[in-house]
C-alpha cells in the first residue's frame, strides 16, 4: 500500500517526541521535581507553593470520585491531540447510537505499547467523540500513578481521565445523572507483553471484573477494537517466560519490553511511533439488567456474550482495515 501522507514536519515530530518522552516514561517524576525547584527559585511562585499542598490534600481523591467536571476539562481540546491524530492518523468509527439516558462500560482492545487510540478518541475531542456520540460523557480510566505527580496530575485530569480502580469506576456509573461512558483498557499492563505488529493476542479470558461491575451497576457493555494499535512500534513479542512473578517482575518484564524499542525501531529510537493508521471501532452495546449480587454463572454468561460480540466486531471489520480474512483473535490467560 502506498503512503501518500506528507512527511511529518519537524515541529510535529518534536511535539510527539515531547509527549511520548514525558507522558510515557519515568521522566514525569523528574519533570515534576524540576518544576518544583524552578518555582522555589522564583518568588513570584511562592504563593502557589504555599497553596498547592493544601489543594493536593483537598483534591487527592478526585480521580477516584468522578474526576473533573467536563466544563473544567480544557486539555481535551488542546492542539497536541490533533497532531497525534493526524500523524498516524487515528479515526473513530461509530457503528450504532449510544443512548445518553444510559451508562456504559467501553472495553478497549488491544492495549498496545501505548494506548494512543484510547487517549485521542476518548481523552480528547480530536476524533470527534462529542459529535459522534452527543450527550455521552467519556471517562477514560487510567492506572492511578498519575495523581502522585504534581502539575502533571492536573493536566491528566483536565482530559477527564479517572483512576481505573473498581471504586472509581463504580462511583461514576452509580451517579444519578446518566450518559457516562467509562473506557477501560481491559488487557492492562500485561497485554503490553503481547504487543507485536499485526498480532491480536488479548488478555481477556480471566478479566471478568468489568462484567461483574456492569451487572452491579446495570451499565451496558460496549466492545471497542482498535485496528493498528499494535503496529506503532516494530518489535517481536516478549521472549521472556510468561510467569516470572507478581508485581515487581511484571514491571521488570514490561520495562524490558519497552527497552527493545530502541533496538527494533532504530529509525525512531523507540521514542516516536511509526505512522500506522489506527481505526477505533465502537461496537453495539450489550444491554445489562442490574443485579445487586450477581452469581458466578451470571458473570460468566455476560463475559461470554461480551467475548462473542468482540470477536464478531473484529471479524466484521478486519479485512477492511488490512487484516487477513483468516486471522482470529487469540485470548490469553493472565
TrEMBL record:
This is Acyltransferase. GO terms for cellular component: endoplasmic reticulum membrane. Belongs to the diacylglycerol acyltransferase family. Keywords: Acyltransferase, Endoplasmic reticulum, Lipid biosynthesis, Lipid metabolism, Membrane, Transferase, Transmembrane, Transmembrane helix. It is found in: Endoplasmic reticulum membrane. Pfam families: DAGAT (PF03982). Its EC number is 2.3.1.-. The keyword Transferase applies. It comes from the Eukaryota. One of its GO terms (biological process) is triglyceride biosynthetic process. It comes from Actinia tenebrosa. The chain crosses the membrane at residues 12-31, 37-58. GO terms for molecular function: diacylglycerol O-acyltransferase activity. CDD domains: LPLAT_MGAT-like. It is a multi-pass membrane protein.
Amino acid at each position: 500500500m502506498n503512503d501518500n501522507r506528507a512527511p511529518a514536519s519537524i515541529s510535529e515530530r518534536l511535539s510527539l517526541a515531547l509527549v511520548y518522552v514525558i507522558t510515557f516514561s519515568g521522566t514525569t517524576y523528574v519533570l515534576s521535581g524540576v518544576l518544583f525547584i524552578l518555582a522555589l527559585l522564583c518568588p513570584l511562585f511562592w504563593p502557589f507553593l504555599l497553596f498547592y499542598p493544601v489543594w493536593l490534600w483537598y483534591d487527592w481523591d478526585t480521580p477516584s470520585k468522578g474526576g473533573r467536571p467536563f466544563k473544567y476539562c480544557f486539555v481535551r481540546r488542546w492542539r497536541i491531540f490533533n497532531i497525534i491524530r493526524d500523524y498516524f492518523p487515528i479515526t473513530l468509527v461509530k457503528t450504532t447510537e449510544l443512548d445518553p439516558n444510559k451508562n456504559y462500560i467501553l472495553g478497549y482492545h488491544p492495549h498496545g505499547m501505548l494506548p494512543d487510540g484510547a487517549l485521542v478518541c476518548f481523552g480528547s475531542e480530536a476524533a470527534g467523540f462529542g459529535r459522534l456520540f452527543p450527550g455521552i460523557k467519556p471517562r477514560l480510566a487510567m492506572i492511578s500513578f498519575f495523581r502522585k505527580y504534581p502539575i502533571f496530575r492536573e493536566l491528566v485530569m483536565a482530559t477527564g481521565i479517572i483512576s481505573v480502580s473498581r471504586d472509581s469506576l463504580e462511583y461514576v456509573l452509580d451517579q444519578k445523572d446518566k450518559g457516562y461512558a467509562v473506557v477501560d483498557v481491559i488487557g492492562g499492563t500485561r497485554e503490553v507483553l503481547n504487543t507485536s505488529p499485526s498480532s491480536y493476542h488479548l488478555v481477556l479470558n480471566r478479566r471478568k471484573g468489568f462484567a461483574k461491575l456492569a451487572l452491579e451497576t446495570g451499565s451496558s457493555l460496549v466492545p471497542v477494537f482498535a485496528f493498528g494499535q499494535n503496529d506503532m512500534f516494530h518489535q517481536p513479542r516478549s521472549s521472556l517466560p510468561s510467569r516470572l512473578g507478581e508485581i515487581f517482575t511484571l514491571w521488570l518484564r514490561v520495562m524490558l519490553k519497552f527497552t527493545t524499542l530502541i533496538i527494533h525501531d532504530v529509525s525512531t529510537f523507540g521514542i516516536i511511533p511509526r505512522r500506522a493508521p489506527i481505526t477505533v471501532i465502537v461496537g453495539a452495546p450489550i444491554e445489562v439488567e442490574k443485579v445487586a449480587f450477581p452469581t458466578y454463572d451470571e458473570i460468566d454468561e455476560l463475559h461470554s456474550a461480551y467475548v462473542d460480540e468482540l470477536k464478531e466486531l473484529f471479524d466484521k471489520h478486519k479485512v477492511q482495515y488490512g487484516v487477513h480474512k483468516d486471522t482470529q483473535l487469540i485470548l490469553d490467560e493472565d
